[in-house]
UniProtKB/TrEMBL annotation, chains A, B:
Signal peptide: none annotated. InterPro entries: DNA-bd_HTH_TetR-type_CS, Homeodomain-like_sf, HTH-type_TetR-like_transc_reg, HTH_TetR. The lineage of its organism: Bacteria, Bacillati, Actinomycetota, Actinomycetes, Pseudonocardiales. Keywords: DNA-binding, Transcription, Transcription regulation. Coiled coil: none annotated. This is TetR family transcriptional regulator. It comes from Saccharopolyspora erythraea (Streptomyces erythraeus). Residues 6-66 form the HTH tetR-type domain. Residues 29-48 bind DNA.
């Protein structure tokens, strides 16, 4: 999931999603995006290393927030409860941007290089959660297995949220998928 | 994990790993590889679409084998047991090539583009296992969550196998990591 903070970065992001949706990712240049957002290319490159990254803004900060929330959780809670709590902080922020997130997903689905980047971002989240669980005392392997399952659940929950015709919240979908993860694991 | 069948493809694979290890992935050309293997570039491109793919041979066949084994498993076995059985067929084939697999892994670790491709291959395995579990009657979500956890376990088990100073078999490491997945999930 990407976050789009207010200001220049969010304007560039919105302009990019608009243009990628209209004329395609490949046929849109950074100059097109900055012109549409009324900003300079210099500003663009202050925020993003390249055109592709405009679709993955602030994921480092998102990951850092999740890691911090895992680290701050009470010691007696189960690893999965801790992760669920960390991933459902501030989901209203995403709910307010569901339309843009849906369009972003459709753009990602058009190109293998964008899907590969998304996988790399999810792998970075996985690694970060693994480290945060180890810091709470989980073994390396147990932390890695829990993080991988949690990231898969997060991805599926986000998919369900984006596809939900009833528009229920991201928190609802995440809580529901994590419950399903527990039920599923009982049959392993 | 890559498989290296006998013949031209395996010779190209071995020559590539040799050269990538010696002089680096970037500084090795397809011409270098074919010359070292005593084969033509035409033969190379009959087997691989590009230089990168020489490090990911036959993964489509591996995935197809796993899917077939999942589909052929008795209906009364648990989804995870079915996957474990499917992933531990024929692991001796990998054990006989552990040295090459270790060197391959070190090459992958040197470049982000190779790690991203590895992630994409693991995602393809995940998608295939999800489909195979659905065909056995699992719900979409349950199948996807089980497949994701299983692929994570497979990856970690393979890592442990490659790093094991005692050289225990891949089957040993896979069985052991799947047991740990079950123990871990009990604490979720």
């Amino acid at each position: 999931m990407g976050r789009w903070p207010a200001g220049a970065q969010e304007r560039l992001q919105r302009a990019a999603i608009e243009l990628f949706s209209e004329r395609g990712y490949e046929r849109t240049t950074v100059a097109d995006i900055t012109q549409s957002a009324g900003l300079t290319e210099r500003t663009f490159y202050n925020h993003f290393v390249d055109k592709r990254e405009v679709l993955f803004p602030d994921q480092d900060r998102f990951i850092a927030d999740v890691v911090e929330a895992v680290g701050a959780a009470p010691a007696d809670r189960s690893p999965l409860d801790v992760i669920i709590a960390a991933l459902t902080v501030d989901t209203e922020w995403f709910d307010r941007r569901r339309d843009a997130a849906q369009r972003r997903r459709r753009i990602l689905d058009t190109r293998a290089e964008l899907r590969e980047r998304e996988l790399a971002k999810m792998a970075a989240l996985d690694t970060a959660i693994t480290g945060a669980l180890r810091a709470r005392g989980s073994s390396n392997t147990s932390a890695a297995l829990t993080a991988a399952a949690a990231v898969a659940a997060y991805r599926l929950g986000t998919d369900n949220w984006l596809a939900d015709p009833r528009g229920r919240t991201l928190r609802h979908h995440l809580r529901s998928i994590f419950e399903e993860l527990r039920r599923t694991a009982e049959n392993w």
